[in-house]
Design goal:
The chain is of the alpha+beta class and about 210 residues long. The protein is built from five helices and five strands; from the N terminus they run H-H-H-E-E-E-H-E-E-H. Strands 1, 2, 3, 4 and 5 form a five-stranded antiparallel beta sheet that branches.
């Protein structure tokens, strides 16, 4: 009791500056303990969280860029496939002569022409394509012939009309309001196909 009283009396007897120094020292110790024990660990966690957030942001931007590139490439691929399908209709890989002849016959009938002769000719290989000529002979009036050429130009396949030879005939059965002029037309309807892969490569080398 005497010692405790002595210590208490000694603290009480200290000057105010000493008491303030001890108080500040105690507060500094407590602050250091708090800083190192709690605040420093929390600051590290915050810094790590910020770094992780930055990494996630970077990864998200990269993923968005890759997605945009994928969408652009997908659209380009779809466009190329559409163009390739269109090119194959214009210039097919196979001759498909039967289908071509059906188109010519149907077009002549729609135009009102009389199809008198249809004779497929031998293929003619060129550097980048193969010609498929068909000799035709039709009979009809001028406006029917013009309609026929118009319809042929609208077919999907590439077709050229060559060596056109016209002969005038007078139709004795024509109506009084009709000019009675009938045309007999011989021509060469030529369509095309793609050459085989090996032939196409050889043709390109020869062209170079």
């Amino acid at each position: 009791m005497a010692r405790g009283a002595k210590k208490e009396s000694s603290f009480d007897s200290m000057p105010l500056g000493g008491k303030l120094f001890i108080l500040v020292l105690l507060l500094g110790i407590l602050g250091a303990v708090y800083y190192f024990a709690f605040h420093m660990g929390l600051a590290d966690e915050i810094e790590q969280a910020d770094q992780r957030y930055g990494q996630l942001q970077t990864q998200m931007h990269e993923a968005q860029n890759r997605q945009q590139q994928y969408l652009e490439l997908s659209q380009q691929l779809a466009n190329r496939e559409s163009i390739d399908r269109e090119n194959k209709r214009v210039l097919p890989e196979r001759a498909e002569i039967a289908s071509f002849l059906q188109d010519l016959n149907r077009t002549a009938e729609l135009s009102g022409l009389e199809m008198r002769r249809v004779e497929p000719q031998a293929e003619e290989a060129e550097n980048l394509y193969v010609r498929l000529p068909v000799s035709l002979s039709v009979r009809g009036r001028f406006h029917q012939l013009a309609k026929f050429f118009h319809h042929v130009s609208g077919l999907e396949r590439a077709i050229s009309m060559e060596n056109i030879h016209l002969v005038h005939r007078t139709d004795s059965n024509a109506a009084p309001t009709d000019d009675g002029v009938v045309l007999e037309v011989d021509m060469l309807a030529t369509t095309y196909r793609r050459p085989a892969a090996g032939a196409a490569a050889a043709g390109q080398e020869n062209a170079q």
